[in-house]
Amino acid sequence: MRFLPTCALLLSLSAIPGFCQSNSAATTDTTLTANANDTSVDYAALRQRLADQNKTLTEQVTTQRALVKKNQELLKDAQRLDASNKKLMEEKKKLDAENVDLEKQRQALKTSQPQVQTAAAQPAN
């Protein structure tokens, strides 16, 4: 029962133009239809925008290529330094081993020297 009076009220209200429509909707409709019917495009502005985008992207690509080149140079330098470091580490190991041998020889000489000095000191007495 309430359905019929509600429908009647909505129909009567929709018949009043000012009640159901707002000015912003009407303006939007006219703006949209004007743009929808307007098939002409500002090709100069479009071309300029694409040229600007192309320039920006070209600059970015150039920058990226420069970074890649610099990174490759840094990688080569790092590889050279690594090889040099490995050679130095091998040389250090050899010198450490030589130092150990020399230390053993020094200890052997040190232990044998007091016996020689003792022998030399006895005839002097």
Distinctive features:
125 residues; mainly alpha; 0% strand; elongated
What is the share of helical residues?
A: over 70%
Q: How many DSSP E strands?
A: 0
Low-confidence stretches: 24-32
Order of helices and strands: HHHH
Q: What is the radius of gyration?
A: 48 Å
Oligomer: single chain
In whole angstroms, the N-to-C terminal distance is: 144 Å
Average residue pLDDT = 79
Shape: elongated
Q: Structural class of the helix and strand makeup?
A: mainly alpha
Count helical runs.
4
Strand content: under 5%
Largest sheet: none
Outline of the structure:
This protein has 125 residues and is mainly α.
Folded structure, characterized:
By secondary structure, the chain is an all-alpha fold. The chain contains 4 helices and no strands. The protein has helices at 3-15, 17-20, 23-37, 43-124. The longest helix is centred in the C-terminal third of the chain and has 82 residues, at 43-124. The protein is elongated, with a radius of gyration of 48 Å. It starts with a helix and ends with a helix.
Write the layout of secondary structure elements.
Blueprint: H1 3-15, H2 17-20, H3 23-37, H4 43-124
